Amino acid sequence: MRSSELPRTLLEAIEPFLSHLRRERRMSENTALAYGGDLRALDAFLERRELSRELGALGKIELRAWMAELSQGRTARTLSRKLGSARALFRYLNRTGVLSENPAQSMKMPRLGRHLPLVVNPEVAARLVESPTETSNEAEALRDRAILELLYGSGLRVSELVGLDFEQLRIDVAQATVLGKGKKERIVPLGGPSIGALELYLARRDELAGSRGIDVRAVFVSCRGARLGVRRVQEMVQRYGALSAGRADLHPHALRHSCATHMLEGGADLRVIQDLLGHESVATTQRYTHVSLQHLSEVYDRAHPLGRLKAR
After folding, report:
1. Same domain for 222 and 259?
2. Which of 82, 251, 256, 262 is catalytic?
3. Annotated catalytic, 251?
4. Residue 150 has pLDDT above 50, yes or no
5. Is 256 a known active-site residue?
6. 61 and 205 both lie in a single domain
């Protein structure tokens, strides 16, 4: 940045930072908006407390006061995310010469408890993916079945699924190219049930829009012919979860977690699962080993004589 363009206040620094996240870090719009919300909340806190909003005046004292106020009624995970947003901004300002140091760098992140992902057993997953056949609109039911098969069968993120275009789908070779976090492409395999469900859906896809126009690129469309949105898929998974398994807490990511956990329990290598899910680090994938060990412990308690004694 030229000296004339350097931001002087926190508020002035936010938009250039968000532009950097979108252009250079290739973060999604939702992620950039989350960073922006956190940083504007910090700015509002400084204004409310009548503290200086000049970048040069921001230090650990102000940040600790912000964390102390936020700690009332918020989880450690939320606090960690908000402090992480401030760290990322100050790191950017330090790198671009606006600040000589990062005042948040040495601050300790809130301690997070181990969070195990929501996973359903294979029987519940099977009932879930089969449940759309019970709906009255056949074309919509076929679409929903194909969506559930892909979420569970290939472990797709919901954003990857709704962003899927025809040019990315290769049913003939049983694979799809998806655009994951950071705009990184990866190839995912399609299982036999997913291919069968996709073929049935695509044969009836145009019926969803009726006489209205239909998005010619998007694989999954709504009854209005437009590309299906993330929120719509989230609501659909929740509805089928409640209908088929009495689980109103299900969400698309639970099917992704279940896919990974069931593969691990079936003998898949951790690195293979990492590649399938598109994790940057194998450490992210390793949390599924904790879920599998928890499952193993539960089976032991039910089946082994010593386990049954422990449960009494």
Report:
1. yes
2. 256
3. no
4. yes
5. yes
6. no
Enclosing domain of residue 34:
3-95
> What pLDDT, in 10s, does the model give residues 53-109?
999 888 888 998 998 888 877 777 788 888 889 999 999 999 998 988 888 877 877
Boundary-marking domain end, from 95, 130, 154: 95
Question: Is position 157 annotated as part of the catalytic site?
Answer: yes
Query: Across residues 191-212, what is the average pLDDT?
Result: 90
Catalytic residue among 253, 287, 290, 295: 253
The domain boundary residue, chosen from 51, 79, 95: 95
pLDDT at 160: 94
pLDDT of res. 193: 93
* 183 catalytic residue (yes or no): no
Same domain, 127 and 91: no
d(CA 225, CA 50): 51
> At CA 262, angle to CA 256 and CA 267, rounded to 5?
130
Based on the domain organization, do 63 and 203 belong to the same domain? Answer: no
* Domain tally, the chain: 2
Whole-structure pTM value: 0.63
